[in-house]
Amino acid sequence: MKLNLTFLSTFAGLSSTIYAQMATTVPFDRLNKNDALLVILDLQVGLYDLVRDFDPTIYRNNIIAHAAIGKLFDLPVVMTTSAQQGPNGPLPKEILEMYPNAPLIMRQGEVDAWDNTDFQAAVRAANKSQIILAGIVTDVCTTFAALSLRSEGYSVWANVEASGTTTHLVADTANLRMMQAGVNLVSLFSIVCDLMRDWRNTPGSAQVLPWLDQYFPVYGFVARGHGAAIENGTLIPGEQQLLG
Predict the structure, then answer these.
(1) Which of 81, 86, 122, 211 could cross-link to 103 by cystine, CB 3.0-4.6 Å?
(2) What is the pTM for the complete model shown?
(3) At a CB cut-off of 8 Å and minimum separation 6, what does 230 contact?
(4) Are strands 155-159 and 184-186 parallel, antiparallel or unpaired?
(5) How does residue 27 score in pLDDT terms, banded at 50, 70 and 90?
(6) Residue 1: pLDDT band by 50, 70, 90 thresholds?
(7) Catalytic residue list contains 141
(8) Cα 164 to Cα 54: distance, rounded to the nearest angstrom
(9) CA distances in angstroms from 152 to 82, 114, 120, 207, 238, listed in the order given
(10) With bands split at pLDDT 50, 70 and 90, how would you rate the model's confidence at 16?
(11) Contact 164/138 with Cβ under 8 angstroms?
């Protein structure tokens, strides 16, 4: 009986501790378009060939969409490449054409972008506290820069759909490492919705829905379907029952 009472006492203590931890509030670190900087990190045409954790067509669209976030929300943008004169190659022309006047830091040897003083200066000159980034490869370019930025006190959002690497295992390991350091691992749609906050804002539905139709068509077609239903205005037999 004494043993049972000891066990029950220990169990009750653990339960109280767990409950207290569960009841502790966790701050919601939210993106703010006025505080955010978009970093386009080593999304180079040669490095693209290393990406094996995405369908190549989907991934190509993902990196262009990542870059286009800056256009939608009028964010400052910093671009950087790693040894682009070699097999890594330049950034895609579609991205370069979006931002002809944005800083483009062409690193000659630094693996971690933050080790380059020009990149540091460009990030600091933007005077933003939140960094949205994506790179190739996830486990090196994205992770190293994200961890360095966290060590400098920045809040970091890593776009997991626009960062690619050689295998799913490598991607999972890199994402876990970033998550443990407080990096926010997020999707394209999550980034857009957090920056927008409210469909009634500007940018809001009028600007975001056409953007989503181009870069996130699964939601664009939701809007198209709704629009077509409103314009048609006809219920076929059986639909009324579904609508209650």
Answers:
(1) 122
(2) 0.88
(3) none
(4) parallel
(5) confident
(6) very low
(7) yes
(8) 7
(9) 21, 10, 10, 34, 59
(10) low
(11) yes
